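TICKET: design request
STATUS: open
ATTACHED STRUCTURE:
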């Protein structure tokens, strides 16, 4: 797969934005509040399925090779962190949001974008909570019920993540055409 200079620049921009978003945190017991979700959602919506997911994958790879881009640093050991599933979910969510917006074929509305963001968010929660539950119970040995995993890994974040999805949808609908023109030339 060959990317143009513009595409590489946009992928790099969103990789940088999610890195910045990972450093703006509010601590919570297992999974901190960050601005990452906002940049995941925007990357899928504005860059599309391919470029959005590539930007998130580049972010994950940079962190795994040791650059301190994740909320708590970086390194290959992050794979066994309870929060690594969310990072996997970011890649999948950017792809899903991007694919949903691409299927709108120029008929981009706030409601349709918001629904795609909610779908992407559900994917992040599903992968993130499942991974956290498995790592805590079967690798770290810290017993946690599925109900507590869902609470600490998803439910407490729903209000802020939904607010971010609404903001991203409003912003995305306003600038989607301009970003598409930049990408296409």
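STATUS: resolved
RESOLUTION: sequence designed for all positions
ATTACHED SEQUENCE:
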């Amino acid at each position: 797969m060959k990317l143009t200079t513009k595409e590489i620049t946009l992928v790099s921009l969103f990789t940088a934005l999610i890195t910045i978003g990972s450093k703006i945190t509010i601590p919570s017991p297992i999974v901190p509040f960050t601005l990452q979700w906002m940049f995941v959602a925007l990357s899928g919506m504005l860059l599309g399925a391919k470029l959005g997911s590539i930007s998130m994958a580049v972010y994950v790879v940079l962190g795994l090779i040791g650059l301190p881009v994740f909320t708590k640093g970086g390194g290959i050991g992050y794979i066994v962190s309870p929060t690594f599933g969310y990072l996997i979910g970011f890649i999948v969510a950017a792809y899903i949001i991007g694919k949903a917006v691409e299927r709108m074929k120029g008929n981009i509305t706030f409601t349709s974008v918001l629904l795609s963001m909610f779908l992407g968010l559900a994917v992040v929660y599903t992968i993130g909570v499942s991974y956290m539950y498995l790592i805590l119970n079967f690798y770290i040995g810290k017993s946690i019920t599925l109900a507590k995993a869902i609470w600490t890994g998803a439910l407490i974040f729903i209000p802020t993540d939904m607010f971010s999805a609404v903001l991203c949808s409003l912003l995305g609908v306003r600038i989607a055409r301009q970003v598409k023109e930049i990408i296409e030339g």
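CLOSING REMARK: Residues 133 and 147 are 10 Å apart (CA to CA). The longest helix spans residues 110-140.
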